[in-house]
Design a protein that fits this description.
This protein has helices at residues 2-25, 34-60, 164-170, and strands at 66-74, 87-102, 105-117, 120-130, 135-138, 144-145, 151-152, 156-158. By secondary structure, the protein is of the alpha+beta class.
């Protein structure tokens, strides 16, 4: 965050410097208000580019075996351009390397799901999927296992077969 703030400030200074150079080359014919306005517009442009580029940069930096399963786009009144082109400010990624199965329960799978957010710490949540039942559960809330390895006391959520997390966990070859 601090580095992006510094980048934004330096972008504003660079644009102001270019306008001042252009003013000098034109013999001082540019209006005096143009330098601060151009600096402000440059800072806004860098901020917008940073917001729109965050998802792609973060996704490209994910370790091998991570699969993005869901994204959340953002629109805001104080950013009117987001109504024309919303940007991704949160997403969930499945760690394929953490995928585990139980031979006694072939329709159930467990894996780690990571939640990424702009200006937020990454959060990890183990998720249990019941592929045949079209449901999933978070294992972070006190779920326990019986002797056969079945999950007891899980807070199952009926999500249906089209749920992105369930589809990713239950895909053949996963």
């Amino acid at each position: 965050m601090f580095l992006e703030l510094l980048g934004t400030i330096f972008a504003g200074l660079a644009v102001a410097g270019l306008v001042m150079l252009a003013n000098r080359l034109t013999g001082g014919r540019l209006p005096r208000w143009l330098t601060p306005v151009a600096a402000g517009l440059g800072m806004i442009a860098v901020t917008i580019a940073s917001e729109y580029g965050w998802y792609e940069r973060t996704r490209a930096a994910l370790p091998e075996g991570f699969e993005v399963v869901q994204t959340v786009e953002n629109r805001a009144v104080f950013r009117p351009w987001t109504y024309l082109a919303p940007y991704v400010d949160r997403f969930a990624a499945l760690d394929r390397a953490s995928l585990r199965r139980n031979a006694a329960l072939p329709d159930q799978r467990i894996a780690d799901l990571y939640f990424f957010g702009r200006w937020a710490a990454v959060e990890k949540m183990p998720v249990l999927a019941d592929c045949a039942g079209g449901r999933r559960a978070s294992l972070g809330d006190g779920a326990t296992f019986d002797a056969a390895g079945a999950v007891t006391d899980a807070a199952w959520i009926e999500v249906g077969a089209e749920d992105a997390v369930l589809v990713a966990l239950c895909r053949e070859g996963a």
